[in-house]
Design brief:
The structure holds 2 protein chains of 2 kinds. By secondary structure, chain A is α/β, with parallel strands linked by helices. Chain A is built from 21 helices and 16 strands. Chain A has 2 domains: 235 residues, Rossmann fold; 226 residues, P-loop containing nucleotide triphosphate hydrolases (Rossmann fold, 3-Layer(aba) Sandwich), CATH 3.40.50. In chain A, strand 6, helix 7 and strand 7 form a beta-alpha-beta unit. In chain B, strands 3-2-1-4-5-7-6 form a 7-stranded mixed beta sheet, sandwiched between helices.
């Protein structure tokens, strides 16, 4: 079976060869990336929360309306979220430029919108302030030195009182001294009762003993003094060491003369914050502004500064708005300067009167007074209205032509003059327009019926008004045409007159026609006033024109190229 | 007496006032220099107020609310801000972080969870632990900051933006983070809709109770505007 010898082969052991293979025994390399927790560095600031909740004064209801819109559903519900949902832009505090510490800047930035401040305190504003008034409050609140220079009628008083109220209620200030001209003391008291009825206010007055007692009272956070009483009580206020957290000057142009006793006394009062309220921080020159800044920040301005440099320096300290800028929902004022040539008769009379008048003034030499110059100016202005001999008047011709058009369209016009005689003459000349008169010779009892007739009688197209009688407290916004038959010395008075027609609620654009006789004293006065407006604009570039820049004594002499015989400058109008 | 009390209360002595007046009067005519003089004498609100905050710590805690948010920019990264308000919405404390920017490794490793990590786990807790006065409730307008709730003891609530200010997609699909996905506990305080962290179910109930007892009417969105403005101001100041 096994002849082949295979059996022998099967019995032999198998030969096994083993080959070993060495594996690499090193561990794989691991690269670890450490994920350290991100370190967070923080900065923290703590703030005083105010003492509003701890201050309690007896609140009482306001008794009379003030500047502002009627409150629209502003019951003190305390729901500040409701305000946020309204479309109105809320007002936030912004730190002024001269606050450099970050902590102090954050303190203002982190305050809630002003509109919410009195919510939750069962207090409210009696009327909704206009947005620009909120801006004014925010401006004053953060400033230790400030001028609120709004145009007359925009509510400087309301803005100042509301800011004082907020400062008092948040505990930022505890004692306020308000200084104003004597006739305005009662007005300030009344405004406080409207806008801050819970704040105790005392007006300094009476005999010396009483005044001293009043000055030392501590339970009245607001003291109101007039400039004269402050001068009288200097020994109590200044020498006695009274200190105030805030001092407010109304009609602050009263301290423009730095060397005057008023300025020196006011500046000597110890205080932390200083505010000035004035519609005319510059009446005659930039020196006026330097004077006011001696109260706000002594040495900050000097008279050598150019108007441009001064304007840049003070821009963060002054807030000025005009009606044209902020009351944008009001119809526009359209000014027309009617430059009229005198009639030949007027020109003859005028030239003669001026040449003779100047000769007479020159002959007076050192006895010449500003009163003499005034008399000549007034006489020449009257001739510009009409020639006394012939009654010729280029102004009347123009006025008649314009009134024809106004009456034909069923409109009404107000004509202003500074002289009652001129108004009486116009009344006779304008009979076909149904003229009504409103001036100083009209008894007070008859004035309201005249205004009523002007409003309601379709045949009465023109109201003849004197500047003095028609400048305060009248609302004639249904009237769209105003004529300034002759010009007042002071643009502020003209503006008041114009604003009888151009005010909140005006029916439409108001056209104001200013009559100026070319080549006469009227044109020279206008040029002086215009140059003052330009100076004002150069310093207060964000503001409108000045509203109360009358001519000073030197400028009145200058109208006839006369030199001043006496030293001193006084505002003449 | 009232005047002296007031001046002392604000931390400025009458002597310092006198020095200010004397210094200003004797200062030069250089307007810039005088500006500096004025500024240097301004009361330092922070230091003055700090003492009062400490003094009233317990009282303030009873009616203190926190608002925390994040400002983000590609240049600086994340900056957190925390504002504590009293019941009248007045500021009590403000804290902000320095800019926080993730490095490249963090960007890769954290991926889509990076923002949630930085905001919710780092910045939020860092801010909240710095407060001197513990707020009763903390509100945020950032989803990611709800994650900070795990690190602090006070409720944190997300203030839901009004529908017209938020893209519908954003509300429907929250950012990819655990907190966002779980932040489904809804509640209302006044007229504001809020959400609480899902892991802290009692927060919604507690917040409602605190809100009712506090008798406050805070606007829960407005304070975030203040924080953003304050962060901008701080950044400008540091620049």
């Amino acid at each position: 079976m096994h002849t082949t010898g295979w059996n022998v082969g099967l019995q032999r052991n198998l030969k096994i060869d083993v080959n070993s293979v060495d594996f690499i025994d090193e561990s794989p390399r691991v690269v670890s990336v450490a994920i350290r927790p991100t370190r967070i560095a923080t900065r923290g600031y703590s703030f005083r929360t105010g003492t509003a909740e701890r201050i309690t004064w007896n609140a009482h209801k306001p008794t009379s309306p003030g500047m502002g819109k009627p409150a629209s559903g502003t019951q003190p519900s305390g729901d500040s979220a409701e305000l946020q949902r309204t479309s109105r832009k809320l007002t936030r505090l912004k730190p002024p430029g001269d606050i450099v510490k970050l902590e102090d800047r954050l303190f203002y930035l982190l305050q809630p919108p002003l509109e919410t401040w009195l919510h939750g305190e069962s207090l409210q504003f009696p009327f909704d302030p206009f947005p620009y008034q909120w801006d004014g409050i925010a401006f004053l609140y953060t400033r230790f030195a400030a001028i609120l220079a709004d145009e007359m009628g925009l509510g400087k008083t309301m803005q100042a009182i509301s800011t004082m109220r907020l400062l008092l209620r948040t505990g930022e200030v505890g004692s306020i001294l308000l200084v104003c001209p004597k006739p305005l003391v009662t007005n300030w008291q009344r405004e406080f009762s409207v806008w801050a009825p819970e704040i105790p206010v005392i007006a300094i007055g009476g005999d010396q003993k009483k005044r001293q007692w009043q000055w030392e009272l501590t339970n009245f956070p607001v003291k109101i003094a007039n400039y004269e009483s402050l001068l009288r009580d200097r020994d109590v206020v200044v020498d006695g060491g009274l200190q105030f957290d805030l001092m407010v000057l109304d009609e602050a142009q009263r301290i423009k003369n730095r060397s005057g006793t008023t300025s020196q006394t006011v500046c000597a009062v110890s205080r932390r914050r200083s505010w000035a309220l004035t519609g005319t921080p510059i009446e005659n020159s930039t020196e006026d502004l330097v004077g006011i800044f001696e109260f706000l920040a002594p040495g900050f301005l000097n008279v050598q500064m150019s108007p441009r440099k001064m304007g840049q320096s003070v821009s963060d300290y002054i807030l000025r708005r005009t009606k044209d800028k902020v009351l944008t929902d009001m119809p526009p004022k359209l000014f027309r300067d009617a430059d009229l040539e005198l009639s030949p008769e007027q020109r003859t009379t005028y030239d003669k009167a001026e040449s003779e008048g100047v000769i007479q003034l020159t002959e007076l030499g050192n006895e010449l007074t500003v009163q003499h110059v005034f008399e000549l100016v007034l006489r020449l202005k009257q001739i510009c209205n009409h020639d006394p001999a012939t009654r010729a008047s280029s102004k009347l011709e123009r006025l008649t032509a314009d009134l024809e058009e106004i009456a034909a369209s069923g409109q009404k016009a107000i004509v202003f003059s500074q002289w009652v005689e001129t108004l009486l003459w116009l009344s006779a000349e304008l009979q076909r327009f149904g003229p009504l008169e409103y001036h100083g010779r009209i008894p007070h009892a008859k004035r309201d019926p005249i205004l009523k007739a002007f409003k309601e009688d379709p045949a009465a197209h023109v109201l003849l008004m004197s500047y003095g009688a028609g400048s305060v407290g009248l609302n004639l916004q249904f009237c769209q045409y105003v004529f300034l038959f002759d010009r007042w010395w002071n643009p502020a008075v003209e503006d008041q007159a114009i604003n009888r027609a151009h005010r909140i609620g005006a029916a439409g654009p108001v056209t104001i026609t200013r009559f100026i006789s070319v080549g006469t004293i009227e044109q020279r006065i206008d040029e002086v006033l215009t140059s003052k407006r330009e100076l004002f604009d150069a310093v207060l570039s964000q503001a409108g024109p000045p509203r109360s820049q009358g001519l000073n004594e030197q400028e009145i002499y200058g109208l006839f190229n006369l030199s001043m015989p006496h030293r001193g400058r006084h505002a003449a109008a | 007496m009232a005047v002296q009390h007031s001046v002392l209360f604000c931390g400025i002595s009458p002597i310092l006032i006198t020095e200010i007046v004397v210094s200003l009067k004797s200062s030069s005519q250089d307007p810039d220099q005088n500006t500096a003089v004025l500024s240097s004498y301004r009361p330092h609100f922070a230091s003055i107020f700090q003492s009062e905050s400490s003094m009233n710590r317990e009282g303030e805690t009873a009616s203190t609310f926190g608002f925390v948010t994040i400002t983000e920019s590609t240049e600086l990264g994340y900056i957190g801000g925390l504002l504590l308000l009293n019941r009248l919405a007045r500021p009590i404390e403000f804290h902000c972080t320095v800019p926080v920017k993730a490095n490249r490794a963090q960007e890769i490793l954290y991926g889509p969870t990076l923002r949630s990590y930085l905001c919710g786990e780092r910045i939020g807790p860092a801010l909240l632990e710095k407060t001197k006065v513990a707020p009763q409730l903390v509100f945020t307008d950032q989803w990611e900051l709800l994650d900070a709730r795990a690190f602090v003891t006070m409720p944190i609530l997300f203030v839901v933006p009004p529908p017209n200010e938020t893209p519908a997609a954003e509300l429907a699909v929250p950012p990819m983070s655990s907190s966002a996905e779980s932040a489904s506990l809804q509640l209302e305080l006044g007229s504001f809709a809020l959400r609480a962290h899902h892991d802290f179910a009692s927060d919604a109930e507690m917040a409602t109770l605190i809100w009712q007892q506090s008798d406050v009417a805070l606007d829960l969105r407005e304070p975030f505007e203040r924080i953003h403005e304050a962060i901008r101001e701080a950044h400008r100041s540091a620049a």
